[in-house]
Design a protein that fits this description.
mainly alpha, disordered N terminus, about 180 residues, single chain, about 0% strand
Length: about 180
C-alpha cells in the first residue's frame, strides 16, 4: 500500500511538472487521485498513453526519453492485459508496449508484443506484422520467421499505396530471403 502511494505521488508530481514545462497543455492529462480511484481498461490505457507521451523527448537531444516513465507506462499496459484480458484495449496496449520495448532495445519483448497485437486482433493494421518481421530479420537474426511474417503482411495489403514504405521494404526482403535477388552488403 505504501509502495502504491509512492508511485501515485511520483506520477502526480511528474504530471504536474510536465504540465508546467511549457508543453502543449491542450492534451488531455490523466490525474490519479488515489488508490480508491475507479480503474478499468480504458482508464489504465489512458494513463499509460499519458505517461508514454510525457516520457519524451527530453533535453536538447530529441531522441532521449524518460525511461522511468516508459516503464511506468509498460506497467499500465501490462495491467490491462492481466486484469482485463477480454478488453478491446489489449491489442492496443500490446502495440504500445512493443514500441516501448523497441525503444529500450529489448527486441525479444518488442517482437512478442507486436505479435500479440495481431494475434489478439487479426483485423489490426499490418504495421504490427511489418515491425515484428523487421525486428526478427534485422535485430534477432530469425530470418525464416521474418520471411513468413513479411509474406503474411504483404498478403493483407488491401489498397494500393497502403503502407507504401513497409511494402517496398518487405517485398525487397522477401526476394532477398528467398534467393530471388542477392542482398546488398
Amino acid at each position: 500500500m505504501v509502495r502504491l502511494a509512492v508511485i501515485v505521488s511520483l506520477i502526480t508530481v511528474s504530471l504536474v511538472l510536465v504540465g508546467c514545462s511549457g508543453r502543449d497543455t491542450a492534451k488531455p492529462q490523466v490525474v490519479i487521485t488515489g488508490s480508491d480511484a475507479p480503474v478499468d481498461a480504458n482508464s489504465l490505457y489512458a494513463e499509460g498513453v499519458t505517461l508514454e507521451e510525457h516520457a519524451g523527448p527530453i533535453g536538447s537531444l530529441m531522441v532521449l526519453k524518460d525511461e522511468t516513465m516508459l516503464r511506468m507506462a509498460l506497467d499500465k499496459y501490462n495491467q490491462i492485459i492481466s486484469k482485463y484480458p477480454t478488453s478491446d484495449k489489449i491489442d492496443d496496449a500490446a502495440f504500445r508496449m512493443a514500441g516501448i520495448y523497441e525503444y529500450l532495445k529489448d527486441y525479444t519483448n518488442a517482437v512478442k508484443n507486436y505479435q500479440r497485437t495481431y494475434q489478439w486482433n487479426p483485423q489490426t493494421p499490418t504495421t504490427a506484422r511489418f515491425k515484428a518481421a523487421y525486428l526478427l530479420d534485422t535485430q534477432l537474426g530469425r530470418r525464416a520467421e521474418a520471411l513468413q511474417i513479411y509474406q503474411d503482411a504483404l498478403s493483407r495489403i488491401t489498397r494500393s499505396g497502403e503502407h507504401r514504405q513497409w511494402v517496398f521494404y518487405a517485398e525487397q526482403r522477401v526476394k532477398e530471403l528467398t534467393g530471388e535477388v542477392k542482398s546488398e552488403p
